[in-house]
Amino acid sequence: GGRSYRHFVPLDYTLITDYGKSVVQSVSPTPDEIAMKSSTLRRITEICNNLVPGSQIIPFGSLVSGFATKGADMDLIFAHDSLHPQPFSHESNIPVRLANEFLKRGFEVDLLIRTRVPILKIKTPSNELGSRPGSPSAQETLKEDLDEEPWPENISCDIGFKAHLGITNSYFFRTYSQCDSRFREMVLFIKQWSKNRDLNSPYFGTLSSYGYVLMVAHFLINIVKPPVLPNLQLIPPEPDTPESELRQDGFDIWYFKDIAKITSGELLPGGKNEMGLGQLIYEFFQYFTTNFNFVSEVVTIRSLGGVMYKQHKGWTSARERVGETTTYQDRYLLALEDPFEITHNVGRTCGGPGVRRIRGEMQRAAQIIRKISTPVAPESPALAA
Ligand code: GTP
Ligand code: MG
């Protein structure tokens, strides 16, 4: 009797690999978009520099890590190392003055000031669509008043005003994505899957893109055998490593950065992982639905072996954390440890229903892949008929 026969047939991942690659291809930004974004970044930096000489615009997020999808926002930080310790006192009010610079160029502008540090959200002007007939478009006004080239349309940027670990972790994941192209492919695929299945809304009880990046990294570094990626945080620094590469804001930020040495394979003594994209996608879903314990375990990147328990971190019951202007609800239903800010649960945005939906969708995905990847045995009735 071949009751569970099908489950013993090794899966053929060709279809899911092809599908995965086509998804990655279709969500990747075009060279045109990438060029447009670099020039936008240059021009925004120029505007900031004219307003505050010596200031800098530091990109982070998917722009730096290489995990950007088509039309992704640009995450930026306005920084300037002035001699004044309080650059954002009410007299200088740089965020407001910067907001005005973009307003007069026809950008959509939204300055959030109820947050701990102000956030300036801007969007480049769209050409003719918004303007009334007979009146000059924002871009035309711009040309008259400022004598500037038109801006590329509909690029959104978030500008923060305080440097933070987000910059460091973006470069960290950029290094990892340069080690093996399957990391970026996995991230883009999982990001797209999470959007299609409505699992990527941190404000509505599911997970941020960054959360999914952590899950993929955990799987490729610590879980799949042999690993696709070495654990760069566990390779000790040389004794003469400068302090700035070791610690930031009181957290350990060291990781190994020598790409040539990483790609040579010598850091993966277990041999190279040769799995195709399809198999990695399947095993990712399988791992999170059957091996990983959402109730007791923590998704971690830095730890040897990758197994860590909520109990161990004291991440057990929800608690309130009082911030400067708001009170946060820290939840630990889905525990994702940030690689550097290890007290921060990136999965805090997930509520009970969100976690159940994520798990359910992972089960569904694994089932579909099993179905389309089970080869039909030559002697089976399906072929014989
Ligand atoms: P897309 O915007 O979807 O293209 O992805 P992204 O890679 O830019 O991620 P996201 O916008 O979710 O986050 C932006 C950056 O904020 C991340 O790359 C991290 O460096 C940083 N970050 C640090 N902690 C958190 C966190 O708890 N949640 C989120 N969302 N971002 C964090
Ligand atoms: Mg982003």
UniProtKB/TrEMBL annotation:
Gene Ontology MF term list: metal ion binding; poly(A) RNA polymerase activity; RNA uridylyltransferase activity
Annotated PAP-associated domain ranges read 277-344
Q: Which GO CC annotations does the UniProt entry carry?
A: cytoplasm
Q: Which UniProt keywords apply?
A: Cytoplasm, Magnesium, Metal-binding, Transferase
Name its cellular compartments. Answer: Cytoplasm
Give the transmembrane region(s): none
* Ranges of residues in domain Poly(A) RNA polymerase mitochondrial-like central palm: 21-178
This chain belongs to which protein, by name? polynucleotide adenylyltransferase
Species whose genome carries this gene: Arthrobotrys conoides
